[in-house]
């Protein structure tokens, strides 16, 4: 659902997909091929939220701001399930892990990876290509070419999802038993540990 607030209507590119169970409010700008998952709350009531092309904001994420602030997710930012972004700038081709929290005025440098459950306190500046983990966060090493290639491939899977949702997602009544001819889904992308094995 999209909501006008205080005269601001969200702007959503026609190629983006915002799940009907997500809430996008006010001064929000969503670019091309963006995926917004169910349960996501993107609240541009007091400030602007800009989600550039090819980003994804997965299920149950929250994006919000203090008054007069802009949140920016640069192209190909990938925000994992349950993460919170509050008043931060997320660089190009960054991965924010599941249930991570990124606070006000944080700048996460391009091609960084923030691990699941990490906490980045306000005003921190994370250099490009940093691997960030923990609560409080620590930079444990630089992101390798191999790691960023793995991350980019994962984001490309999500870049296809909006078109797939527009084409095939629809409400339905559930089946009462598994059909005998139900096809197995392909393994098109692997976890980091699987990809190294």
TrEMBL record:
InterPro entries: Hexapep (IPR001451), Transf_Hexapept/Carb_Anhydrase (IPR050484), Trimer_LpxA-like_sf (IPR011004). Signal peptide: none annotated. Residues 176-197 are annotated as: Disordered. This is Carbonic anhydrase. It comes from Pontibacter korlensis. The lineage of its organism: Bacteria, Pseudomonadati, Bacteroidota, Cytophagia, Cytophagales.
């Amino acid at each position: 659902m999209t909501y006008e607030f205080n005269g601001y209507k969200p702007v959503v590119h026609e190629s983006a997909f915002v799940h009907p169970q997500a809430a996008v409010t006010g001064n929000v700008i969503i670019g091309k091929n963006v995926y917004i998952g169910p349960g996501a709350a993107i609240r541009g009531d007091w400030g602007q939220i800009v989600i550039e092309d090819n980003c994804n904001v997965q299920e149950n994420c929250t994006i919000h701001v203090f008054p007069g602030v802009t949140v920016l997710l640069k192209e190909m930012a990938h925000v994992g399930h349950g993460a919170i972004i509050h008043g931060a700038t997320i660089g190009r081709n960054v991965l924010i892990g599941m249930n991570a929290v990124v606070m006000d005025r944080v700048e996460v440098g391009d091609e960084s990876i923030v691990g699941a459950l990490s906490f980045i306190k306000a005003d921190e500046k994370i250099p490009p290509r940093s691997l960030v983990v923990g609560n409080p966060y620590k930079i444990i090493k630089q992101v390798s070419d191999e790691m960023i290639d793995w991350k980019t491939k994962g984001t490309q899977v999500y870049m296809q999802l909006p078109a797939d949702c527009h084409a095939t997602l629809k409400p339905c009544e559930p089946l009462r038993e598994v059909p005998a001819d139900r096809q197995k889904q392909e393994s098109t992308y692997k976890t980091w540990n699987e990809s190294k094995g």
